[in-house]
Design a protein that fits this description.
single chain; 340 residues; alpha/beta; Rossmann fold; Hypothetical protein af1432; 5-stranded parallel sheet; globular
């Protein structure tokens, strides 16, 4: 198949929904359309579309099973899947993420929303492919081109991070500020330049998994419902899944996965304790909490840096690594560190 545009496969047993999606997307993408799961699997295996819009409630094989089968096939496992569904409950959405979906659009859908989500995930796919290519080049020419290629890599990572932050203006700059603090702590701990580079890149991407969390939840004022909070808590695992297959000399995906783990096992997603948590992730965790507590959020005003420092100090040795906390406190209280 000769492609002049990205290929999007639409999978829905309802002809009206297919027609609506075709009319919405046909000016920007090459399109394929099938009405059931087995045909979707055959089409994806044969043509490798750039993205799949997948209905959940279908006869023969529902969307969850189709997505699972796609992810089991080496030829189709990396194709982004966006669910198109009338199921609006958080539990259904979480299940979609668990089987490998990247996002969802709730029926009845709006053309502008469909276009925006398709465009975002195709951009992320392209960025991941570019990042993968850049890493391969970095390995091949490491002695001659290290500095230049690392600059290219960092630019790509910053672009990926920006894709998350533009969805939520209230936390814009959060990942950059967390990175500033984490690298300063790592420097004071005399970690190697290579480990500080690892922390810098992981910091810029630590919330990449929030690309799948609805903006309405991220920016909603008031206390979150339990189901909404459970959805937000999937973001470290989602970030890990997005980054894990990118060749890298650094444990970026593992740091992203662990940055909400806590020493006493009360963190998530795996309840790791003590030395089972990477030092880089411990540094990221303290930096993340300090920045978040001191900044404005839609559900509360800024608590200020003093409150943030009191939080990590109170839980030093229980939730947070004591050495990391001590250095963080010293940076702010004695050395004049401040978020830029």
């Amino acid at each position: 198949m000769n492609r002049t545009k990205p290929l999007v496969l639409i999978v829905d047993d309802n002809s009206t929904n297919i027609d609506l999606l075709v009319n919405t997307l046909r000016n920007d993408y090459d399109l394929g359309a099938v009405k059931n799961g087995p045909k979707a699997l055959d089409y994806a295996d044969k043509y490798a579309p750039d993205l799949i819009l997948l209905d959940i409630m279908m006869p023969e094989m529902n969307g969850y099973e189709v997505c699972s089968r796609l992810k089991e096939n080496p030829r189709t496992k990396d194709i982004p899947v966006i669910f198109i569904t009338a199921l609006g409950e958080a539990a259904h959405k979480t299940r979609g993420f668990e089987v490998g979906g990247l996002d969802y659009v709730t029926k009845p859908f709006h053309a502008a929303e469909v276009k925006a989500r398709v465009r975002t995930h195709l951009s992320l796919k392209q960025m991941r492919e570019e990042l993968n290519t850049q890493n391969i080049i970095l390995e091949q020419k490491v002695e001659k081109k290290t500095a230049q290629l690392q600059e290219m890599l960092e630019s790509t990572i910053k672009t990926m991070a920006l894709a998350v932050e533009i969805r939520d203006p209230y936390t814009a700059g959060h990942q950059e500020r967390v990175t500033q603090l984490a690298c300063s702590i790592a420097g004071k701990m005399r970690l190697s330049d290579d480990r500080i580079t690892t922390i810098r890149f992981a910091g810029l991407l630590h919330d990449i998994g929030k690309i799948r969390v609805p903006v309405s939840i991220l920016s909603r004022p008031g206390k979150l419902l339990d189901a909404e909070f459970q959805l937000i808590k999937t973001h470290p695992k989602i970030g890990f899944d997005l980054i894990k297959n990118i060749p890298s000399p650094w444990p970026l995906a593992e740091i992203i996965l662990q940055h909400h783990e806590r020493l006493d096992g009360s963190g998530y997603p795996h309840g790791l304790t003590g030395d089972k948590i990477l030092l880089e992730a411990k540094i990221m965790g303290v930096s993340d909490v300090t920045e978040a507590e001191s900044s404005y959020r839609p559900y509360r005003p800024s608590l200020g840096i003093d409150v943030a420092l009191a939080e990590i100090e109170k839980n030093k040795g229980k939730l947070y690594d004591p050495d990391v906390v001590d250095i963080c406190l010293k940076l702010f209280r004695e050395e004049g560190f401040g978020f830029k």
